[in-house]
Design brief:
It is built from 7 helices and 9 strands. By secondary structure, the chain is α/β, with parallel strands linked by helices. The chain has one domain: NAD(P)-binding Rossmann-like Domain (Rossmann fold). A 7-stranded parallel β-sheet has the order 3-2-1-4-5-6-9, with helices on both faces. Strands 7-8 form a two-stranded parallel sheet. Helix 1 crosses helix 6 (190-200) and helix 3 (83-103) runs parallel beside helix 4 (124-137). It is globular.
Length: 226
Amino acid sequence: MPSPSSRTALLAGATGLIGSHILQALLADPGVAKVHVLARRPLTASDPKLQVDVVDFKRLPALQAIDETYLALGTTIRVAGSQEAFRAVDLDANLAVAKAAAAAGCQRVGLVSAVGASARSSVFYNRVKGELEDALKAMNLAALVIAQPSLLMGDRKALNQPSRFGEEFATPLMKLLSPILPRSFRPVEGRSVAQSLVRTLPTAQGLVVLSSDELSRLGADQGPRT
């Protein structure tokens, strides 16, 4: 394990709802010395810890030494334009980052997945998420933490992201029904998902899967775990 104040973290997907909160949590964590972000476009954020590289995820460069990697790349079929384009982001790009990080010595990966993820699912979205989970499991990492949130709550407009009709339609209903829903299907704040991953990954061992209720609980209070 690296010393308490010398960890280097790699993040892909820093402009998304969860990824932006992961970035904030890593920059605020005194145990992280450097945050290396891979992005498709420049970021507006700046910090002495932060290094941003604009990359083509189909042709990633060799990476420097990394202690932990966070995979938060994601899109929707509506934004991507097709199932193939969706798969290229949610599966291919995330997996490419994980493999590049492993080649740089990283054995600790945190993934933003989804409830119901399964490579055998009849739902395309869940099937792609499940295929990525299986591919990462096959890498035999020292630690793989998979967040499986249900409906995500958060302000996408503040991030200049298009609203997601499903989330807008379902959020009020899910909040109302939350007390009677199975715990793993309860809505969760994007910030809680991010905080849970940042707190869990540095000391995790083997495979850890976090459901929505666990993500809400682990991400409830302020600040990273130190």
